[in-house]
Amino acid sequence: MTFCFFSAIGIFFIVFQTSFFPQFGIFSKCYDIITPFILYIGIFQPLKTSLPIVLFLGIIMDNLSGGAFGIYLTTYFWFLMGIRWITIYFHAGNVFLFPFIVGPAVLVENLIALGSTAFLERDLQFQSYVTSLIFSQFLLALITGPIFFIFIQKIHKKFDKLIYNFTGGKNANKK
Amino acid sequence: MFSKKMLIIIAGFILIVVNIMGIAVSLKAKNYSIGGDRVTLYLIGPLQESVNYFIQSMRNIWNHYFFITSVAKENDRLLKALNNERQKSNECKELFLENSRLNNLLNFQKGLSSQVIAAEVIGRDPSPWFKTIIINKGAANGLKKGLPVMVSEGIVGQLIDISKHYSRVMLIIDHNSAVDALIQRNRTRGIVKGGEENGNCFLKYVLRKYEVSIGDVVVSSGLDSVFPKGSLIGNVSKIVKTGSGIFQEVIITPYVDFDKLEEVLIILNPSKVEFEIKK
Question: Is B129 in contact with A117 (Cβ distance < 8 A)?
Fold first, then answer.
């Protein structure tokens, strides 16, 4: 049930990002909104639940993207591992941690994508817009990351409450 | 023999190595597909199409109803304009008849109409680093991998993934795209490659000895057997001749506005189009 819920939310974000955002120029510099979602489930879901979701969303993103297969899969997988390690190491899994991880995560994701492009094209010339885009996405992620976090948390709580009411408290996610 | 911590470190290291190797193999075998892309397009395509339909409907409502207050003023202005345009219309009719005669003479119109299929853009690449779009036509409509995608302004790109009802198009501004092209004025050859900023393209491998001017029109050469010969690509917007090197760096601005693409045309039999143009 939790897998289906988070997968559906993830697919919603993917469709939103690929169909809704491109219609409005204001979102042209927006970062990958699946990243904060991956970090959220990395913090608040056990590995046995979060890993299949992350792999599932990674595969979908790879198949929708023009890049080589595996870039998103790799990025999301290591985000999951990284965030789990951070939460264990710092004993922190709350909203205060979020601005400090979404920004760097978006930065790393962009560097991986660019690295894969550079791997294929040895004479690739990085233009000034690349630095500008990376920097603006980084700043945007720092500012809006926690908003995404709160948004996902609210939906998650509503879903938990719904399940709790539906099952009489037997199968609800207590987290 | 090993502590648990050591085993985790070794496992992590192996995982990283396998991951990097997997990505490297995937990068080198980009054209190979096990069908996951088709399944994904099959599943995600309808959702993207629905969102697209919803947005277009909302836009229509906005344009037709909420702007109705300005319509009265617009109507007065248009009535005046109409009188002027009537006179011009007569001239245009004459030009239209002349144009029709020339089209028939070239046998171009008939050739294209039987080869082309129209599709709607329903989604875009989730990553800003790769330039692809998703369209709502697929194998069921007769599309095949590699077919050229165009609009009236010029070349858009090439089909790279096909599912039953949806397809993915790699735009010519993508890093991985390459189109064999030539400068229309003096027939200088080069390869149009994506990856330039602001949605522009590079015209690579143009020898320094050839004279290229800003504003020169760049068209497809047809030698890549993908795009029909003479299809418009863009015009030269910048030329850089560095101190050394046998090539000059030419930047071209595509005629197609890729941010505003809504509908595209797919040429089902590009080689035949080329043949008919020649004929």
Answer: yes
Q: Which domain holds residue A63?
A: 37-167
CB contact under 8 A, A66 and B176: yes
The string of pLDDT tens digits covering residues B196-226 is 777 889 998 888 888 888 999 999 988 888 8
Helices A47-64/A34-44 angle, 10° precision: 170
Domain count, chain A: 1
- The amino acid at residue B90 is N
Domain ranges in chain B?
178-258
Whether ipTM tops 0.85, in short, is no
pLDDT at A169 over 70: no
Q: Taking CB atoms and an 8 Å limit, are A127 and B197 in contact across chains?
A: yes
Cβ pair A67:B160 closer than 8 A? no
- Distance (Å) of CA A23 to CA A18, A143, B173, B263: 9, 23, 19, 13
Residue A82 counted as domain residue: yes
pLDDT at B93 over 50: yes
End-to-end CA distance of chain B: 79
Chain A, 69-88: which have a CB under 8 Å from a chain B CB?
A: 69-71, 74, 77-78
**How many CA atoms does the CB half-sphere of A169 hold within 13 Å?**
0
Lowest mean pLDDT among B43-47, B62-66, B236-240: B62-66
| A28:B259 CB<8 A | yes
Helical packing angle, A98-120 and A34-44, nearest 10°: 120
Q: Which CATH architecture has domain B178-258?
A: Beta Barrel (2.40)
pLDDT at residue A123, as a whole number: 61
Please state, in angstroms and rounded to a whole number, the distance separating the CA atoms of residues B95 and B103.
12
Does residue A120 sit at the B interface (CB-CB below 8 Å)?
yes
- Contact status of B199 with chain A (Cβ, < 8 Å): no
Is B244's pLDDT higher than 90?
no
Query: Across the interface, which of B23, B40, B195 has its CB nearest the CB of A68?
Result: B23
Check residue B102 and give its pLDDT: 61
Span B186-200, average pLDDT: 85
- The pair of three-digit structure tokens given for residue A43, joined into one six-digit string: 């913090």
| Minimum Cα–Cα distance from B20: chain A residue | A74
DSSP A39-85: HHHHHHS-HHHHHHHHHHHHHHHHHHSSS-TTHHHHHHHHHHHHHHH
Q: Distance (Å) from the C-alpha of residue A169 to the closest C-alpha of chain B? A: 33
